[in-house]
Amino acid sequence: MTNLSDFSEDELTQILDAPGSVLKGATLADGRPGAIRFIRETASGAKVFREAQEHENDFIRSVAVALRDRIKDQEAAELSPAAKVGTPAGVAVPEDPRPDPERDTAKAVELTAAAIAVLRERADPKDLDAYGEWLLRIATEVARATSSKEGGFFSKRVAVSEGEQAYLDRLTAAIRG
For the region Disordered, what residue ranges are annotated (predicted)? Predict the structure, then answer.
């Protein structure tokens, strides 16, 4: 089994950041994030994350638990009195927080490719395959969470929009590369 402790801090960051980035990219892939759609898609992705905490693959389970712990730590830090003081000098301000479908989907594909490259070098092949399949499952479940109308008002609904399918195809290429 591949252990998270086998990776450097930078490599581990890539491995842990990819699933959230994939989820974000999938919610924005069709370019029309509405409030109800966003809630349904995010809930669908969250379900995949929860299920991963009990995944049959030990590596996927350890990644999911590490993500859960990271979120709890971030929430605790945000609640601390020191977090309310402001941004100290010399601390980098994050990039534009507004969603940008092109930027965010490209970032998700890039981060996925980087995480897969790290795992290809040092992970057990079964763990690499399970991780790639898990990322694709996140994106697919989010894409299928709501149906879309392609082509206008009188068109029929499709489970996965053209933009979402293009994102899934790029993600698949990054994983299987």
Answer: 78-104
Query: pTM for the complete prediction?
Result: 0.85
Cα 132 to Cα 107: distance, rounded to the nearest angstrom = 16
Question: What is the Cα–Cα distance from 15 to 31, expressed in whole angstroms?
Answer: 26
Q: What is the pLDDT of residues 114-169, one digit of tens each?
A: 999 999 999 999 999 999 999 999 999 999 998 765 655 555 666 788 889 999 99
Are the C-beta atoms of 59 and 2 separated by less than 8 Å?
A: yes
How big is the CA angle at 131 (ends 29 and 134), to the nearest 5 degrees? Answer: 50
Q: Beta-carbon neighbour count of residue 136 at 10 Å?
A: 17
- The residues spanned by each domain of the chain are 4-176
Strands (E), 59-134: none
